[in-house]
Each structure stands twice: as C-alpha cells, then as structure tokens.
Design a protein that fits this description.
alpha/beta, about 15% strand, four-stranded antiparallel sheet, 18 helices
Length: about 450
C-alpha cells in the first residue's frame, strides 16, 4: 500500500476527519498508505493534521500524512478522494433553516430536501462539479467516497462528470441496530431489504429469525404505542429504542414498510409533519438548530485541543465495534474492498444500474450491496408502488436541481421548490427562494444579483 494515496477534502473538519482517519489507520490492509488532508481553512487543517499524527503514532501505523490547501496538489495521483465539506458553513445554513420558518416550514435538519436542502444543493453542486473536473485532470481513475449532504445530488453530480463515486451514510445501519435493540437480538439476526434514496429509505422486507418484523412489533403493542400522545409515549421505556422512528412507523404501518432512517430526516420528505410549529411539537420531532451545531463543533474542537495538550487521552479506532460488526461510515473497509483486499457487504448510495427498477437509471439510490476489487454490486431492491409514490418525485426534483445549480437558473429552482411537499402555500415559493438566495449570495455566484 506504499503507493496508495487517499485524500480527504474537507480534511480540517473536526466533525468528520478524526473518525475517518481513525478508520483508515485501523484497517490492516491499508498500512503504508499516504493520506493527504486538504482544506481551505489552514488553521482548522493544522489542528486535524496534528491530531492525525498523534493517532498514527499511538497506533504504530506505517501510513504517512500530508496537509495542504492546494487542491491540485492534493488530488494529483490520488486513488481515493473522500469528501466532507459544507460550502458556507453554519453562516449559510442559518438562512437555510431560519428563512423557511417565516413561511411556516420548520425543518428538522435542512440539508437534503425541502427549501434548506434545495439551496444547500445550489451552493454545493457547482463545488462538486469543479471537484470532479479537477479529478478528471489529476486522478481520472480515482474513486470518490462522498459523505457530504445532500448526498444523493452531490454524488450524482460527480458521476455525471464521468468520475466513479459512491455515497456513505450511516443512517440505515443505525436504524437496523435500533430495531435489533428493541427486539433484543443482535443485528445479524435481522434479514432485510432496504430501498429508496438517502434519508428517504425504507425496509421493504424485514424478518427476525424468519418472522416478519411488523408481526412481532404488533405483538409487542406498537400500534397502541403509536396512538399515545407524544409525551406519554416518550415515557414508555420498552419503546425507547424506537423513539426516533415514531413518524416513520406511523406512516409505514399504512404502507407495509418499516422506516430505514430516523424521523429527523424522513419527515422532511413527507407533507404535514413540518408544516407549522404545532405539528413539529405534536409529533415530538427534534430539530437540530444552528446553535446545536455550533455547540457541537465547539465541543469537538475543545476536545481535540485537550487531547493535543495531553489533558485527555486519545481514544483510537478499532476495526470493529463492540458487537463485532462493521462500523458505520467505514471508509477504511470500503477502500480495502475496492482495492481487492477483501469483500464486504454494506449500505450503498450508488448509481442505479437496475437495483431499483422503479427509479431512473443513473440516479443515486440507497440499497445494500457488495464491494470488491471489481467495484460495486448492488442487491436487487425494488420499491413497491406505494413507496415509489413517495420517493420518485424527490428523485425527479433532484435531477432538476443539478441543472438549476449549474446554470444559475432561478426559474428552474422555483419549479423545484413549488412542488416540494413541505411548501405550505404556493404563493410563498418565490419570495422565500428570493430571500434565501439573497442571504447566501456569497456562495451562489452563478445566480445573477
């Protein structure tokens, strides 16, 4: 692996870089790889670089590290490009969340769909387009492993440029573990098929030791629990593992499917739940505010400073979690598999080559699949019509979003927002979009003032 070059774009991220580096260093097949951390923020980059070197030394890894703010230098000769960025950071995200509130839309995350997800895509799609163009010049055969939201739209942008790209999201695995915890079994005893798109994914089939999961849930009183007022339901300790799935279960029991993602994300793809603050409170949805995000970032930075100063010990990553199962977002395992060193099965966000026949070919869809030295091999994961009715419109809007973002076309962006299920009143679409673009114009140079 001495010649393997792995690049982390957004390498100054205190949220992502420590974990990603740790998983690469913990992967025995990647010993000796050269890891390049790239970021436009030199100060943040230096912080994560020093932490990475400490991590390397503690693990006795033969990997080497480099930091740079020069994207061409970083990409030159790369084999794998990992991307975890946020164009405009929290400043731009504030407008994504707070402006829609004036129009009655109370987004829980605001990074994938709805007005917040749309404008975030308008900012990030051109960045990923240029990144793909740079990869064509400096490392045309490299794989991109994308962790940036909106995951599907950005991964699709890179693939449309001819670069191989896959998306990683830990949501489905995390939710599968929550069902397993509620059922009192290891996740290995769940057999399931998940299908959809990132943050709007469903378990179309799930069995536990051969028994249908819905049957077991109903035996344990899930219907009665879902009928309780939110505050009362929250006090039921038996259902605590399913607490963040109430919206998805409420919808899914009428559709014959289990939600494969938590309510914070799924609710943004559905009407009703985020339309008006009273609905958010009624369904007990937890919103991640800018203040929450800022506090999280500050806490992570402070933790890194304590580790670097010796006030706090560095906790190194392990190849597997405490249950002996693969960790989420395990970029080390993905790279080792794509290098032909091993074969793994994981949750993939990958181009649709027929694994979800109800959705357009080339769209980024979320299913289980196998990774090996020949690439990705998704498992057949058809969507029943009732789920297609939810997912497909978002896929179509996503494709329109790429065109609007790259062309700087306000009218195209307006058509996307006008058909979004979160919109409360059609007359709100134009003024809301105008206000959101004006507030984030520093990161939207393609849109005329």
């Amino acid at each position: 692996m001495a010649d393997l070059k792995i690049v982390l774009v957004g390498g100054g991220s205190v949220t992502w870089t420590p974990g990603l580096v740790g998983k690469i260093l913990a992967q025995p097949h990647l010993g000796g790889a050269h890891i390049v951390l790239h970021d436009i923020d030199a100060e943040a980059l230096d912080l994560t670089y020093r932490l990475s070197m400490m991590h390397k030394d503690k693990m006795g890894s033969a990997c080497t590290f480099e930091q740079t703010t020069d994207i061409d230098r970083a990409l030159d000769g790369a084999d794998y490009v990992l991307v975890a960025i946020s164009t405009g950071g929290l400043v731009s995200m504030r407008a994504d969340l707070e402006i829609p509130e004036k129009y009655g839309i109370y987004q829980t995350v605001g990074d994938t769909t709805g007005p917040g997800g749309l404008v975030r895509a308008l900012r990030n799609v051109p960045v990923f387009h240029h990144l793909a163009q740079a990869m064509i010049q400096h490392c045309p055969d490299a794989w991109m492993l994308n962790l940036t939201n909106p995951l599907s739209a950005l991964t699709r942008t890179v693939n449309r440029n001819g670069i191989k790209a896959l998306g990683l999201c830990h949501g489905v695995l995390g939710v599968a573990r929550e069902y397993a915890r509620f059922l009192g079994v290891p996740v290995s005893r769940l057999a399931y098929v998940n299908s959809g798109i990132d943050h709007c994914s469903w378990f179309t089939h799930m069995t536990v030791d051969g028994r249908d999961a819905w049957e077991i849930l109903r035996e344990r009183g899930v219907d009665e629990w879902l009928s309780l007022p939110t505050a009362q339901a929250a006090e039921d300790e038996a259902f605590a593992p399913l607490a963040r799935l109430r919206v998805g279960l409420t919808v899914g029991r009428n559709l014959g499917a289990l939600p494969a993602i938590g309510d914070r994300h799924l609710a943004e793809f559905l009407p009703t739940f985020l339309q008006g603050k009273e609905n958010v409170e009624r369904y007990g949805l937890v919103r991640t505010t800018i203040a929450d995000r800022a506090a999280n970032y500050d806490a992570k930075r402070a933790e890194i400073h304590r580790v670097l100063s010796g006030e706090e010990p560095l906790v190194v990553a392990e190849p597997t979690d405490v249950l002996g199962e693969r960790q989420a977002d395990d970029v080390g395992a993905w790279i080792a598999a794509l290098e032909g060193k091993t074969v793994i099965e994981d949750n993939l966000n990958a181009p649709n080559i027929g694994q979800v026949p109800q959705l357009p070919l080339g769209a980024i869809v979320e299913t289980r699949g196998v990774l090996d030295g020949a690439g990705f091999h998704p498992l057949a994961s058809p969507l029943p019509p009732q789920l297609e009715a939810i997912v497909r419109p978002h896929v179509l809007r996503e494709e329109l979003t790429l065109g609007a973002a790259l062309e700087g076309d306000f009218d195209k962006a307006l058509t996307i927002l006008s058909s979004d299920p979160l919109l409360m009143r059609p007359e709100d679409a134009r003024p809301m979009l105008e206000e959101m673009i004006a507030a984030t114009r520093a990161w939207l140079p393609q849109f005329p003032a």
